[in-house]
Specification:
The chain is mainly α and about 100 residues long. The protein has a domain of about 70 residues. Helix 1 runs parallel beside helix 3 and helix 3 runs antiparallel to helix 4. The relative contact order is 0.09.
């Protein structure tokens, strides 16, 4: 019974700037220095669907972009819409993962 009440221990986080993670590419994408072709977009999407670390990093960067747009008076609608979509997708994928883990235990 005591085992169940132990806090969840997080492992060492991965280096999100090193492959297969794509934080460096996300930076470049958000500042307009990387224009992925359809294959690269597909690969990026696949990774984001499976890597919660990169999803959270993307959502965080979209929050920063939204706030920067707001502070400069630029329209923050695009960053806001993207953040909302990725946040909803992230919550959905995390829920699915928890449900899968519960079924397996």
């Amino acid at each position: 019974m005591m085992e169940e009440n132990r806090p969840y221990e997080l492992g060492e986080p991965p280096d999100l700037l090193a492959p297969p993670h794509l934080l460096a590419q996300v930076f470049d994408l958000l500042i307009g220095q990387w224009h992925p072709d359809s294959v690269e977009q597909h690969e990026m999407g696949l990774h984001l669907f499976t890597c919660s670390y990169c999803r959270v990093a993307l959502i965080t960067l979209l929050c920063v972009a939204e706030e920067a747009d707001r502070q400069t008076g630029a329209s923050d609608e695009q960053a806001h819409a993207l953040r909302e979509r990725w946040s909803a997708l992230h919550r959905h994928l995390e829920q699915q993962q928890v449900q899968k883990e519960v079924k397996e235990s």
